[in-house]
Design goal:
- This protein has helices at residues 2-13, 16-19, 35-38, 40-54, 62-65, 67-84, 89-110, 116-145, 147-150.
- With 164 residues, it is mainly alpha-helical.
- The longest helix is centred in the last third of the chain and has 30 residues, at 116-145.
- It is globular.
Length: 164
């Protein structure tokens, strides 16, 4: 959890031009695709990372409120994959994450004078670039190299023997 949170926060804070404002591609949001592989600790790591990353935001305290939809949607990404075990749910849930964050961040930035609909569109597109176009290959790579095994989250297949 703490490594994820630190990596997310570092990517946002050290790339501020891409991370804050109405035109953004938060590279750190590619990590949302890894959440299902990390389990609920990934949800907590994502939430903590978003909170820490938004502390230096020029739009504080509003930006801190976006921790709430980030938590909810990272849980949706995690839970949907957990229940379906379908790799393609990552694309769908990360897209949904992008839309929800586009709306919430867009509304928040409209209070600072950004045009609402354009900002929602720009934030959503930027988030799709990060969470789907970068996140999907990251998910596949981490799954292929066995990140779940490394962190002890590997699913164990239990065979049930039937009486013959």
């Amino acid at each position: 959890m703490s490594i994820y949170a630190a990596l997310y926060a570092a990517l946002v804070i050290f790339l501020p031009g891409l991370s804050y404002g109405p035109l953004q591609v938060r590279i750190a949001d590619c990590l949302i695709a890894a959440v299902p592989l990390l389990g609920f600790a990934g949800v907590l790591g994502h939430t903590l990372g978003v909170f820490i990353a938004n502390i230096p935001s020029p739009f504080i305290p509003f930006d801190l409120l976006n921790t709430i939809p980030s938590f909810i949607m990272s849980f949706v990404v995690y839970y949907t994959y957990k229940k379906t075990n379908n790799n393609y749910t990552i694309i769908a849930t990360c897209s949904a994450y992008s839309v929800v964050l586009g709306i919430t961040v867009g509304y928040m930035l409209s209070y600072f004078g950004a045009p609402l609909l354009e900002t929602i569109m720009y934030i959503t597109i930027g988030n799709i670039i990060a969470s789907v176009l970068l996140g999907w290959p990251l998910f596949k790579l981490l799954k292929k190299i066995g990140i779940q095994h490394w962190i002890g989250k590997e699913t164990k297949n239990i065979e049930v023997k039937q009486d013959e």
